[in-house]
Fold this sequence. Notes:
alpha/beta; TIM Barrel; binds zinc ion; five-stranded mixed beta sheet
Amino acid sequence: MFIDTHMHEMTYSKDSFLKLDQMVSIARQKGLGGICITDHDSMGLKEYAAEYAARTGFPVFVGIEFFSLQGDIVAFGIDEYPKERIPAQDFIDLVKAQGGVCFAAHPFRNNNRGLEDNLRRVHGLDGLEVLNGSTSADACRKAAEYALELGLFTLGSSDCHIPEKVGVCATYFPEEVHTMQEFLAAFKKGGMKPAYYTEGGYQVIDIKNSVNLRAAWI
Length: 218
Ligand SMILES: [Zn+2]
């Protein structure tokens, strides 16, 4: 199934123009099986999203995009998170201590919010976002090279803040997941692949074939 693993909802991400209902509606149209709300330094939507998912039957997984001192990290499966910026390694350790999973968001985006070469210095990341709908092809390609080098799981996500971006990229999960427990278990097992939306469906990318990655962004 395909899940957009990094998205922003306007209630708690002040730079987003998206409401959950609209996000789910577009996600359904594109064929996504679930979405992830990963607001900036907030998990405020958690209760509402759980209620919404139960009512509609559409999986909504709430995580967080935490701006560590070295860059953005997306995490799931945690209850507690720091109220101020802390070193990336400390945040990763905190996620692991709570049994959660995390991935580096847009590590080479040119806005100083990616981990960049800190990827080689931190330990415990589960994955790396190699396809981000709001990041250049070059930066995505570089992320893919690091994922291969470091042996990290590969994610794709839209990082959407506006309707046009919802679901433009997504992650292929080998199994169907509906609950957060299933999502975390699948995430820890691995086998995820980045994908992008084209001509009415999702195209999975083999990151070992960089030509493919380039084609996705021309
Ligand atoms: Zn984001």
